[in-house]
C-alpha cells in the first residue's frame, strides 16, 4: 500500500506540472530551498507541518490534497455499456460514452454482404467515414466510393447515403458527423 510520502510526491509533481511550473519556481514561491522541494517530490522526505503548509499555500491547495491518495482521473466504459443499434445486419455503436456538442462518432461492423442506409442530416452537416478493416463501400447521392483500411471519404451529410461491406470478411468503419452549426 502506498505511503503518505508516495502520495505527497505524486500530488506535488502532478499539481506542479499542471500549473506548468518548475521546481525552482515553486520552491521560491513556498519559501523553501529547491533541494527541499526536490526531496519532497522524490517521496523520500519526511516534511514538517510547516513545510507541508508552505507547499500547499504555494500551490493554492489544502494540505489534505497533498497527502491524500491521488484522485482517479479516468473511467473505463466497457463496450457493452455504450449505446448500440442494429440497422439491418450492421452493428453500430457510439464510440464515446459522453455526447460531444454538435458531433456524433460511431463505430460500425458489417458482416459479409452487410449493408445499411445512413440517415441524412440537416443541411450544412459534414460527415467523415474511415475504414479500419475489410472493405467498405459508401454510396452518396448515387456515387459509389470503395474504401480500404485507412481511407477516408468526406461528404455532405444531408445527402442520401448508404454503407455496405464490399469485401469478404467483416468490415469495420468509423463515422464522424459534424452537425450543422458546429
Q: Main beta sheet: strand number and arrangement?
A: 6 strands, antiparallel
Instruction: Name the strands of the widest sheet in spatial order.
Output: 1-2-3-10-5-8
SS content category: alpha+beta
- The helix content, as a percent range, equals 25-40%
Globally, the shape reads: elongated
Terminal Cα span? 47 Å
Spans where pLDDT lies below 50 across 5 or more residues: none
Radius of gyration (CA) equals: 26 Å
Report the CATH topology name of the largest domain: Jelly Rolls
The chain-level mean pLDDT equals 91
| Beta strands, count | 10
CATH architecture grouping of the largest domain: Sandwich
- Please identify the oligomeric state: single chain
Give the class-level CATH name of the largest domain: Mainly Beta
Approximate strand percentage? 25-35%
Number of domains: 2
